[in-house]
Amino acid sequence: MEVQRLVDAYIIGLGDSADNTELRTTLVTRISAGDISLLELVQALGEYLASEEASRRSKGVNVLSDVLADLPGDAIPAVATAKLVQFFSARLADATCVPHILTAVLALMRHPSFTGKFTADILSALLKEVHVQSFQYSTRRAAYQLVDLAIQSHPEAVAKMGDDFVLGFAQVIDGEKDPRALMLAFQIIPKIAALVDIKNNAEDLFEVIFCYFPITFKHREGDPSAISPELLKAALRSAITCSPYFGDMAIKPLIEKTTAAASSVKVDALETLAAGAHVYAPELFKAEMEVLVEQIREDVMMAADDAVVSAALGTLETIYSVLSPSTPVPNDPFSQDANMSDSSTPLDYVLKEAVFQLTADEVKNPEQIGKILRAVARSSTYNCSVVSDAVLPIIVERMSGTEVLTLRRELMDILNYVLSASCDVERKAECLDADKINLLSIYRPETSVPLDKEYSVLHIVRLKGITLLTLLPNFLSDDEAAVALQTLGRAAIERNEDENVNKEATHLLIQLAQSRPEQINSTVLPLFLDALNEDMVAAHKVARLLNALGSISVAASGTLIPVLRGLVALVTTGQMASSHCQATIETVRKVLEAAMAANSDAKLNTDLYAAIISPLTAWVHGLASTNQDVPTKLVVEVARALVTLFSKLETSAQEQLLEPLFSNYLAVLLSSDESVGGLCQLLPVFSAAVCSCRPETKLPVDSLDAFVSSLTMSSLVSDSQVRRDVCFEIVASILNKIKDSKLRSSLTQIVLRHTGGAGAGLSVILLHQWVARALISCNDKCGYDSVRWLLEQTKQASPHAAEAAEGFNIILGEHDWAVTPTTHGVFKVLAKQRFYSTVVPEITSGFQSTSDDAVKANLLVVLTNAVRHMPKSVLMNGIENVIPLLLSAIRLTGGNLKAASIRTITLVILETPETLRDEVTTSIIPLAIASTTQSNIANTVDVRQAALGALSLIPEKYPYPVVHTARKDVLRALAGARDDRKRIVRQDAVKAYNKWLNLGED
Amino acid sequence: MNITQKINDAPLVYEVVSKARGVQLGDFDDGIDDPIDSEEVYELIRNINDPEHPLTLEQLHVANREHIYVDDGSNRVLIEFTPTIPHCSMATLIGLCIRVRLLRSLPERFKVDIRIREGTHQSESQVNKQLNDKERVAAALENTYLLDVVNQCLATAV
């Protein structure tokens, strides 16, 4: 009775659309616990299930399906499943009950008691009794899911149904319009084709799916269904191409679709054909090849859409690859020719036209002909041979009979495409060997052709050909390849009217570096090095050659060390000008960086260090020991190159290399003797090595405390700027990398103890700045003591107050090696946020509490330095408090700081324009206008550019009513800025002027 | 003539060879003056759109670097442009676009002459006269429809 009560309540709930979860849970729990049997439930539902009223019947099934969906597998006995299946199969004829039955069956099917026989029963009833398309989407989806689940869980039962199932399913999806349902249906079809022999019903099935081709639908925004036009297209494609039985019905209409005007349809049809190539019988394609080739040729020749061209060529290649015989062509070109004339082969459709074009007086569309020939030739080794046999003799003959350069170029272009196919199939056509001498003579450089811009395309085509000959497997002998590489090398190096020839030659050498690294090293590298070593070589040529060498060296691992060695040898032999030396070392560093980013293993790093960095450091050491003046930039460049490798070395290798460096430089660093002046210049190299050590690397000193202490003392008394900076860098780096906070704190005390007696001299200020940098980045609160001390200094009437303010750049800015992420510096998350939230309020309050203009200016310098190194996300948080100060900074400062302030304001305008809505016309525009005048010495080029950038952004970010009052003034100012003495400023002024001129036009 | 029909249906489109000046070291040195030269003026007009096609004057070789003459000292600029075909009725409009672009971009001290390259157009002298007549240019720019067309052509140049 209780069941009846529950069921009645449930049914009433359904009628009122109430939440039945509780009732449902009760029913499910009771049945699972065995308090109520499933039979009792059905009995209780009896009056509903047998009712003459459709809605009551539907509700009855609804209750049953809800309960079944939640019941665990073991709660439904096998007998009950059989009865339920019988019941549901019979009830599927009752349209009102179908939606709930499908849900219930889907739930039942997941239970192990649901056998293959049941699957067949239900499927038969579904396909026979239910007119699926008359139901709404959710029911149709359930029907497709049911079929899918049936195929998945009981394939043998479905297979047994055979033709009935195929035909039934074809009828089920006939007329389907919802893309979501189509997606499911299309996904089922390949599964059916794999499971059942669809031969008898292939036509019916094909018709119901092919009518959707080409399929498009617009994905509406906010549509939760996770299907996209591409997915739907792919699903339909896999359905159309899932069975060889579809071939004779699909190929013709698909080829017809390739003539469509819309390029998306063309691409879809071509890609579907390509997908079908491996499924449909090749004979079917053979019959249609003439039409298809004609259509593809037209598409390629028109070249209206790149996507169409690449799809057309891809399809051509795929289809020819399945049509091609698998055996390679016999080694007799003549017999092949005879075959071709006897019976028409599919290749004829392409070759006839190509041969016709090649023998015409004027070769039209050489690039397109070449592309088609390449697509066909690369489809198989057989096709490659046939195409080469047909085309090569004609080209060779025409080349020998013409001197017209345009024609020669066009023929060479086509030949290049054919040769590239040989490279792609990794097997050269046999006929190439026979024509080797002719081929070599075709590509031999013609000295009669001048290196004019007009002929650069000809040169480039020839260089490409030479590369292809070199890439052909087993074609050129080593000597011939060396000559080819030399030709390319010279083309890359020699001065040419058109730099594209140099660029192309370099590009080709990079390609060859991967396949022939040894020959590049032995043939091309010396050419480059000789060119770099020539007298009076121009800087831009050096830059070009170094770039080329850099790209070649990173292209293949085999060329890396030889090129770098060559470059280092050039530098260390001392024949190069120092400016070129610097450019060369810079290239070495960039190559090392690229090599490290690509692949960094311990052995390679050690080898590179020994081969590259050691000779460089020895070279500068040699220069400095003989008291020569070594340019600082050169030393820094060597140090940067060292950092690149040294930071990547293992701890043990670093420790080993530090020993000699310490013995060479430590005494120089700590000495106050100026007689070691020469070596003093090289201290940045020492600093770079020590700063790029790993945290666990042990420095070769007896006591770290004593070492740091002596460095600090030496720095505070030294007059040498280099020595002082190096000491600070090393101290900061050591402090930053100490993991134990107590140890770090005690070491910090030791360092700062030395400043006790000394007043606030420049060295002390710098020391505090470096200590702050080291500690703030690892979130050590002691760092803020130094920051506060520095802030205090900026407020003093001391000669170093300005330097204390300026030095905030050291705390937050970039550095080449000291306390940076690449040199294993410790950077904790939120360190910058913490700095910003701690320091900026202090600056703001300091600014408000002082009336001294000098102090205000210093605080603004600190603020600008703090702001410009902050990430955007940090900066935008609470920016409104800082804006007034930034505006004051624009008024009071000049140069870099002024530019930085303007750029910060610009950033705010870009990100959150509403923050500055009130200030924009009252303060920002007048200040920006004032900053564009070149007569004011504070307005450097950078400042003027920044101001114009801000002005240019304002019309984009603010509506017309907000800024229109300023338009006249701004235009007047910008008209003046258009006559600035610097070109880059004028360009920005023109941009801004036109934006303001069009203000409100939109 | 049908308004949608184009005067030159299939103009020759040339590949644009990038010859941008690039940033040089002296660019940020305030002590060095950068006089206005033909390259800079070319940079201002090369991206103007053709009134008929979605192509720039540079792509159509209507504007050429070599046909711009600038004398910064005496404040003179002479631009010669080449219509794509000799009977191009858009020549005046193209000239007007160039003039407006330079009016809005060059310093006001410059006197700008715009001419059709000799021998490249049937009504060369009439068009030249129109383009260099201040009154007529001013009157043309009063015409809002014409100004809209000019602004559309210049939209890509900014």
UniProtKB/TrEMBL annotation, chain A:
GO terms for cellular component: cytosolic [4Fe-4S] assembly targeting complex; nucleus. The keyword DNA repair applies. Pfam families: MMS19_C, MMS19_N. Residues 42-301 form the MMS19 N-terminal domain. InterPro entries: ARM-like, ARM-type_fold, MMS19, MMS19_C, MMS19_N. SUPFAM superfamilies: ARM repeat. It is found in: Nucleus. Keywords: DNA damage, DNA repair, Nucleus, Repeat. Key component of the cytosolic iron-sulfur protein assembly (CIA) complex, a multiprotein complex that mediates the incorporation of iron-sulfur cluster into apoproteins specifically involved in DNA metabolism and genomic integrity. In the CIA complex, MMS19 acts as an adapter between early-acting CIA components and a subset of cellular target iron-sulfur proteins. This is MMS19 nucleotide excision repair protein. Belongs to the MET18/MMS19 family. Residues 558-955 form the MMS19 C-terminal domain. GO terms for biological process: DNA repair; iron-sulfur cluster assembly; protein maturation.
From TrEMBL, chain B:
This is Cytosolic iron-sulfur assembly component 2B. It comes from the Eukaryota.
